[in-house]
Fold:
Amino acid sequence: MSGIDPRPSLTERRKAATQQEIALAAARLFARRGAEATTAEDIAREAGVSLRTFYRYFRAKEDAVAPLLADGVRQWIGLLSAEPAGLTSPEALERSARAAFGPTAHRPAEALEWTRGLLRVMAGDPGLQAVWHRVHHESELALTPVLAELAGPAADPLEIRLAAAAASTGMRIAVETWAATDDPTDQVPDLAARCVGELTRGLRLWGRHPSDPHGPS
Structure:
């Protein structure tokens, strides 16, 4: 693949940074006020962008939090893809789930706290709930080819999809469970690994295919 630069362009990086700033601003405001009392104008002002810029990236105010909610999922899938070959598939899922909740260069450590506040107000807002569940459905689709690679070419596509759904659900339940408590953010990695592990370790997929490059769990 010589001659192909896999890195995002400067324009793409700037776009992602702007989306993330708007997402963090929306999460802060929604957590403090609720979505009903927050307007797109409020979010744009909080993020330091024009309303026109806001609508260039998002169709509705609730959509603005999607990049924040999806960021951990993207990081998790990237970490899963990079796990060493000697691990079993369930081990790779749990290790990457635990590692996915660390701060990154474009996501401050406080982002998880803002996510907690957002999830707490989400129960009474169908628009935010729809965004949350859409993000996790998209994570299943993104996770499926990575799990297919881990499971090997003889794996049943239906079982791979079931594994993706189980793993994504584990991550969702972990964050929702933590958000309902006052536990510190350092509790999330172990909780995520536990939830993902309990939902995926017993799947028939891992022990059924001798072609699995990581072997049966």
In short: The first helix runs from residue 10 to 33. Confidence is low (pLDDT under 50) at residues 1-5, 209-217. The CA atoms of residues 29 and 38 lie 7 Å apart.
